[in-house]
Design brief:
globular, 8-stranded mixed β-sheet, alpha+beta
């Protein structure tokens, strides 16, 4: 089973256990329910779903005025969790420092921060939770495309209010 198929299976299983659900569009046009339980503090959200993946394209803009709220939302989302992201969120002083500490690259541009790449190595549900949490703060049109060693891709798409995940092969 490739890593994105495993992610699809994982999100379906988690979806049955949570109250916050969202539609995920598959390349086939089918829709499944994916879940990101914002209140869950269980280790299940940290399940590894990939062993070799990388960022292929990233263009996520967060205005300077929204960055403190975005960073606060991340801290809240991971509060009480035992994860790398939670540890880094507690340790860093601001949003750009947090991004750098977790391996993402960004640039300042005209009143905003552009997340334009990074090193992920593995995909976990913690990573998905992180980018889902950023949904309300990302400018519409933001995208983060991740590909695995088998050529499948997962794209996080932002509409200015939330993140949706699209899978394609």
């Amino acid at each position: 089973m490739d890593c994105f198929a495993m992610l699809r299976k994982t999100t379906l299983v988690i979806g049955a256990l949570t109250v916050f659900e969202r539609h995920v569009k598959l390349s086939t046009g089918n829709t499944i329910l994916a879940a990101h339980d914002r209140d869950s503090r269980s280790d299940e959200m940290g399940v590894q779903v990939s062993t070799a993946a990388w960022i292929y394209e990233a263009s996520i803009v967060i205005r300077n005025a929204r960055q403190p709220a975005a960073f606060s939302a991340i801290r809240t989302s991971f509060e009480g969790c035992d994860s790398f992201f939670a540890e880094r969120a507690r340790a860093e002083r601001d949003f750009p420092a947090f991004l750098e500490s977790i391996g993402f690259t960004s640039q300042r541009q005209e009143g905003a921060l552009l997340i334009d790449g990074g090193d992920i190595d593995i995909i976990t549900n913690w990573l998905i939770r992180l980018f889902d949490t950023l949904g309300p703060f990302v400018e519409a049109g933001g995208v983060l495309e991740i590909r695995d060693e088998e050529g499948e891709q997962m794209t996080f798409c932002y509409n200015g209010e939330q993140m949706d995940i699209e899978f394609s092969e």
